[in-house]
Amino acid sequence: MSKIVPVVQEIMSANDSLAAQNRAKLDAAQVVGMNIMASPGAGKTSTILRTIEALTADYKLGVVEGDTANVTIDADKVIAAGMPAVQINTGGNCHLDAVMLSGALAQMPLAEIELLIVENVGNLICPASFALGTHFNVVIASVPEGDDKPYKYPNIYRGIDALILNKMDLLPYIDFDMAYFRRGIEILNPDVAFFPISCKTGEGVAEWVAWLKERAAIYRQ
Q1: What is the full DSSP assignment across 198-210?
Q2: β-bridge partners, 85
Q3: Per the domain annotation, does 2 fall within a domain?
Q4: Is residue 1 in some structural domain?
Q5: What are the two backbone dihedrals, phi and then psi, of residue 44, each rounded to the nearest 5 degrees?
Q6: pLDDT tens for residues 183-205?
Q7: What is the pLDDT of residue 49?
Q8: What is the per-residue pLDDT for 2?
Q9: Are 139 and 111 in contact (CB under 8 A)?
Q10: How many distinct structural domains can be found in the chain?
Q11: Rounded CA gap, 7 and 46, in Å?
Q12: Which parts of the chain fold into alpha helices (H)?
């Protein structure tokens, strides 16, 4: 007699349970956690560095960097900016999960942090399925990726709290239909906060940071 083993269901249930524990750990330490997701090259690290620069005077920050390879390139950049950072090597996995974040939290000086930024693995599919226990989720898109990404990868845009469109300085040189892009987002997530920015020029960064400070203050209360 054959049996069907609900492996996927069991994995997701276990992950969600541990994600709840991660959230409880962050809450107990009064740390607000933000999960940043994007495709490779969208500008996750550059956005994080811009955010750190803008928030240093107001918040004590920490960063968890996720990568598929055993490298510390991004974490080294964050540490050079004066922030504590932990690098997670996923061993080739295409996403972070609650187990990985739990291990990283154990290495972070949570008592010295108010806002924890988690840079997920560069991928528009897998990270959307795994809760980490952070308080809110952000996706970074970029102009060079094209305006069709919400239609091709809808799950990553559902349920996020903010969407950053990076590399706006390239908009005059690339065939990118902003109205088409926004329409795709609004179908999936009509209430998402939207921030067109350029990490190179600084355009829109102030608006993004103002929203982030407001959202962090709400959770810290």
Answers
A1: -TTT-TTHHHHHH
A2: 63
A3: no
A4: no
A5: -60, -55
A6: 999 999 999 999 999 999 999 99
A7: 94
A8: 52
A9: no
A10: 1
A11: 37
A12: 7-28, 44-55, 73-80, 98-105, 149-152, 178-188, 205-220
